Design the sequence.
């Protein structure tokens, strides 16, 4: 079975060769999405794949997800199964007017879901989420590193 990384690599190589031909590039992108959706449907639910950055600072783990045009009411942030952060939501399809003629539909719609296993050093009860300008920021504070307790042992003799 071919892996998703192999598909991405092949698509990237073809894409780079056709970088100046917009129609070929767009067709390749559509084909790759269809193929990946058929092989890995759980990775391609609605949005092809919601982009999420995860960085670790000395104080917290910070997740940033690009969700342009979405409202906070359309997004859910949950913790499931002991330290699995779940970011999910749904972007609804724009209502069609029968008199409209669409020339291109590129924006994604449908459900999306991303899961991240959190490390053990987090404060699960202090997770915060903020939605601003189409970017969801989830901050997961870290516990302070436990300093080893050193006990001096008296040497007899």
Sequence:
């Amino acid at each position: 079975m071919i892996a998703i990384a192999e598909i991405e690599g092949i698509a990237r190589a073809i894409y780079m060769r056709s970088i100046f031909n917009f129609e070929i590039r767009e067709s390749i992108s559509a084909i790759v999405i269809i193929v990946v959706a058929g092989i890995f449907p759980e990775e391609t639910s609605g949005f092809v794949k919601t982009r999420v950055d995860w960085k670790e600072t000395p104080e917290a783990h910070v997740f940033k997800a690009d969700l342009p045009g979405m409202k906070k009411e359309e997004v859910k942030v949950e913790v499931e199964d002991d330290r699995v952060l779940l970011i999910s939501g749904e972007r609804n399809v724009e209502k069609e007017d029968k008199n409209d003629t669409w020339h291109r539909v590129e924006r994604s719609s449908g459900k999306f879901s991303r899961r991240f296993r959190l490390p053990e050093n987090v404060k699960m009860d202090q997770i915060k989420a903020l939605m601003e300008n189409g970017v969801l920021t989830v901050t997961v504070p870290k516990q302070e590193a436990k300093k080893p307790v050193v006990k001096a042992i008296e040497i007899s003799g």
DSSP finds two helices and seven strands in the chain.
